[in-house]
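Quick one, tokens below. Sequence please?
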């Protein structure tokens, strides 16, 4: 694995790790009752994710340009398997970090609620006391959480299935659009701009079907209308479906790339 590919893998890892850790902020919002503050703090991590996205695309595009000029430079199949594997590993790591991260975010939300100052919150996190809080918050997932794998009867299975599909599509959208340039070198610029062909479907599903359900469930949990353990079970299933979606994405890259290459040739 060369340096360029290593950077792409690292950026992919960061993007999917942050996406998984978003669930910790939902739990922190429920525990503190300050849902808006929790999501506001999460936006700081979103900036890091978007920065990683802004570098990932161009680096992938550059790799394809090199591959078109000299196909012997790299194996595209090895590339996309490794990149999407990074997404799966990041999702798994993020899931394992949820117990630790939810404690940290709960403390951060409470602290920000008192000080209302982001610079002060960041400064406190770098003090010896802040570092000790980080150490004390470290935790591994409890074995009892495995009971959550028994899907609650009142959780719409379609939400879990849709989250699986969305995760798979989001994992391949950008990669497939870039690698479509290998299939249609003459239309590689057009193909690279067609990631919305794949991601658009995932975006519609997420913001029209999945996110409203999670938002309502988060509000209900914060107000005590549903039990917190039920809320946590749903979160565990969302993380599991996200992880399985990234695994399924391995089989969608080239079919998606062929679809995008065909569209690039037609339009």
């Amino acid at each position: 694995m060369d340096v360029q590919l290593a950077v792409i893998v690292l950026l992919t890892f960061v993007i999917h790790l942050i996406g998984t850790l978003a669930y910790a902020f939902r739990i922190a919002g429920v525990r503190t009752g300050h849902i808006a503050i929790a999501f506001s703090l999460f936006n700081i991590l979103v900036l890091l994710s978007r920065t990683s996205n802004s570098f990932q695309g161009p680096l992938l595009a550059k790799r394809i340009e090199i591959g078109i000029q000299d196909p012997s430079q790299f194996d595209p199949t090895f590339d996309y398997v490794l990149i999407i594997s990074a997404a799966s590993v990041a999702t798994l790591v993020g899931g394992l970090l949820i117990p630790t991260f939810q404690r940290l975010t709960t403390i951060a939300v409470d602290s920000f609620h008192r000080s209302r100052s982001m610079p002060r919150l960041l400064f406190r996190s770098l003090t010896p006391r802040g570092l000790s809080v980080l150490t004390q918050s470290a935790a591994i997932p409890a074995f009892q959480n495995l009971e959550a794998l028994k899907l609650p009867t009142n959780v719409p299975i379609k939400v879990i299935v849709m989250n699986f599909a969305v995760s798979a599509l989001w994992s391949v959208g950008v990669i497939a659009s870039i690698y479509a340039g290998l299939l249609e070198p003459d239309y590689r610029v057009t193909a690279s701009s067609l990631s919305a062909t794949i991601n658009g479907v995932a975006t519609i599903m997420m913001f029209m079907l999945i996110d409203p359900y999670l938002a309502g469930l988060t509000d209900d949990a914060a107000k005590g209308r549903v039990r917190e353990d039920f809320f946590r079970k749903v979160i565990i299933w969302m993380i599991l479906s996200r992880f399985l979606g990234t695994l399924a994405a391995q089989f969608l890259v080239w079919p998606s790339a062929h679809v995008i290459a065909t569209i690039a040739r037609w339009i």
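The mean pLDDT is 81. The CA atoms of residues 124 and 130 lie 6 Å apart.
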